[in-house]
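Listing S7. Sequence submitted for prediction.
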Amino acid sequence: MTQPTIPLVDLSSQQEQINNLIREGFNRVIAESSFIMGPQVEEFEEAWAAYCGVPFSMGLGNGTDAIEIALRAAGVGRGHEVIIPANTFVATAGAVKRSGAVPVLADCNENFLLDPAEVALKVTKRTKAVIGVHLYGQAAPMEAIRNAVPHSVTIVEDMAQAQGARRHGVRAGALGDVAATSFYPGKNLGAYGDAGAVMSASKPIASRVRKLRNHGGNARYEHLEVGFNSRLDTLQAVVLNAKLNFLDEWNGQRVRAAERYDQLLADLQMVKLPRVAADNEHVFHLYVVRVPDRDRVVRELNAVGIGAGIHYPRPIHLLPAYSHLGHRRGDFPTAERHAAEIMSLPLYPGITAQQQEQVASALGKVLGR
């Protein structure tokens, strides 16, 4: 009998809950032919801003554009430096590079989050911004990061993996000067394709984001600066509006699943469980453990139908695209150690206790208990 496959991510249970809402919303868009910047976009922007606890939210075409446009709207450009964690998805570094600035890497702490003490060591007179990446579902220590840099430095949140997370009771999206997110389908709040947004309490930043996303202008054929074609698609706004109604419920399911893994894996001595930083409310976009001989473990789990993954196998400074930054192996020891050990286990709204027990049992066998 073939062992059932347990995927790393399964969106089917979410889809069952929103099918009718999506169908009705799509029909409305099609009937109105409001495919670009239709009223559903503004509806979502207002709802998402209220959810995050900020006055302004601007929908964009994807999360990478969101980071770059957030930086540009805050005045980041050529001649500037932007401090980012060494352990992040390449999009964070790519957005900095595309803005014209230089990405300056700093090491992470044991919670996988940007270390404020390392940030303080990287500050120069050219430092214009710091991007705190809310990795795996919990917020970076934004208040400590802010205290580590001069007041003039813009504090940016990359919150693509922490939609709904809180720090000191404040939601991600309202912890910095400006925030960027992706709504890639697998995110806690995901669209049916690429989508993103920028959030801020700053009216000038919000105004410039709106111009930049629309070819540099607020009105058709009025182009005040060179901009982007990066508008949130109306059909994706329909999806996001529908899913936002369930985000807290789905995040709660993720948290309970993470707690179940904590119990199931507690006796596996070789497994280092994820830690929740003080004052954080984690939403477990990913459940990331650390194990020895990680590549073999992932390979053997995959062979028996367990969809384990790696987020991310190499820090930014060890990627060929960023060799020009001049770093060598050993420059960011914590990020490098984590990259060799981290493994993401299947976790998503709707995962069952039986599936998690099967994952834990398989992991125990692979590790030899």
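Caption to Listing S7: primary sequence and predicted structure tokens for the chain studied. The two ends are 25 Å apart (CA to CA). The chain has two domains: 12-244, 247-367.
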